[in-house]
Amino acid sequence: MVNTAASWFRKKGWRNELPTSSLPEASYASDPSTRPAVIDALGQLPPRQRAVVVLRYYEDLSVAETADALGCSPGTVKSQTFEAFAKLRVLLGDAVIPETPGSPP
Fold it and tell me: Rounded to 5 degrees, what are φ and ψ at 102?
């Protein structure tokens, strides 16, 4: 009875999604001309930070998968990612590395 009552108050927005034939535009469009600069900047990161960025954003692994691959905790992956992006922003500027959390470089 409690579960039925609670379900009446749940947000119904996700139920209104409809499939479409076209995909939405990507939220982040990378500029191919910045690729060499990004590769050079990645080379300046400490090995663990570089590994985290490559596994998370180039190999598209989750935080848990990256933690397993590196033999560390998920919290370490998150903190190393944060520190790596902070250093990359200094090296490349905010135009190349967006300030939005979770955005790919």
Answer: 90, -10
Q: What is the pTM of this model?
A: 0.62
Other beta carbons within 10 Å of 83: 15
* Interval 84-100: pLDDT, tens: 999 998 888 776 666 65
Domains and CATH numbers, the chain: 31-97 (1.10.10.10)
75 Cβ neighbours under 8 A, 6+ residues apart: none
| Nearest in space to 57 (alpha carbons), one of 92, 95, 87, 30 | 30
What does the alpha-carbon distance between residue 91 and residue 42 come to, in Å, rounded to a whole number? 10
CB atoms < 10 A from the CB of 98, how many?
15
> What is the spatial distance between Cα 86 and Cα 48, in angstroms, rounded to a whole number?
14
Whether the pLDDT of residue 1 is over 90: the answer is no
DSSP classification of residue 26: P
